[in-house]
Amino acid sequence: MAEPFRTQRLVEFHDTDMAGIMHFASFFQYMESAEHEFIRSLGLSVHSQIAGKTISFPRVAASCDFKSPVRCEEVLDIAILVTRLGSKSISYSFEMTSAGKEIAAGNITCVCCQVEPGEDITSVPIPAEIREKLQTYLA
Ligand SMILES: CC(C)(COP(=O)(O)OP(=O)(O)OC[C@H]1O[C@@H](n2cnc3c(N)ncnc32)[C@H](O)[C@@H]1OP(=O)(O)O)[C@@H](O)C(=O)NCCC(=O)NCCSC(=O)c1cc(O)c2ccccc2c1O
């Protein structure tokens, strides 16, 4: 089993609701931001030029199960693994804990796409240099 990429986020006041707990929509933003940090940690970018193509990763599926609440100023530990590396798609899992307690578990699937101004977004095979780096984190 691959070691996950790990990062942390401090739960911000503006991410909580009137019950004082992190709002469900905020979990998706934390997953997105953690995924972008993961991509950058590999020396990649969420939007890059590869072989003359502008490559981007629009999302086609996202889900999250909420197990326990987390509150303002608590630290959220996020562990990311690649659960599927398809021909064009990448699926990630996100295990979110706080002080060792299970908080939430999410999944996101994005598709490698060529995005050029004025043109339709087109899915393309994941370039070898990206695939190679993601492979290390394949669950
Ligand atoms: C993205 C699309 C253009 C793909 O359409 P296409 O017809 O080419 O897709 P296929 O059916 O051939 O599938 C390709 C590939 O994807 C897998 N897949 C497709 N749908 C799903 C799904 N629902 N769940 C799981 N997997 C799915 C399929 O199995 C194939 O996998 P292989 O690996 O086997 O090849 C088209 O779907 C489209 O345009 N969708 C709309 C996209 C969109 O608007 N998304 C919401 C906004 S995107 C966004 O918010 C966003 C956030 C970020 O953080 C980004 C970060 C970095 C870059 C971009 C970001 C971004 O856009």
Automatic annotation (TrEMBL):
Keywords: Hydrolase. InterPro entries: 4-hydroxybenzoyl-CoA_TE, HotDog_dom_sf, YbgC/YbaW. It comes from the Bacteria. Its EC number is 3.1.2.28. It holds the Pfam family 4HBT_2. GO terms for molecular function: 1,4-dihydroxy-2-naphthoyl-CoA thioesterase activity; fatty acyl-CoA hydrolase activity. Gene3D superfamilies: Hotdog Thioesterase (3.10.129.10). Belongs to the 4-hydroxybenzoyl-CoA thioesterase family. This is 1,4-dihydroxy-2-naphthoyl-CoA hydrolase. It comes from Bythopirellula polymerisocia.
